[in-house]
Amino acid sequence: MELATKTQRLSAAVTDGFIVGVPYIIGSLDVFPAPIRFLGVIASLGLLITQLVLVTKHGQTLGKRFIGIRIVLKDTMENGGFVVNVLKRGLLNGLLSIIPGYFLVDSLFVFREDRRCIHDMIAGTCVIQVEPAVVQ
Question: Model pTM?
Fold first, then answer.
């Protein structure tokens, strides 16, 4: 199994940010009429739930699927499921992000030889390359 490249990881993160972020922004801006804002909020929540289900079941968000990378347990190369992928890797990392500078330091860890960020080490995961999902 080949580790995901730095570019793949960044591309997947940016893609995920757009997928959930754009509907969220539409839902929060007063320049749009109320029905459009409501749809933006609903779309954002729906996409967030979709992301949680995908990362739980497959170790991939939509961005990771498109780019062709997957989160796996470092020792077994298996999917970590809800506890590892969502709680340890996502929620705990989100909580740590309130510490000033944490996000930057965590992100810089991708330049290590094993390309594991702090949140990967906490969760016992790594990110590997897989076949990208093809939209048909």
Answer: 0.89
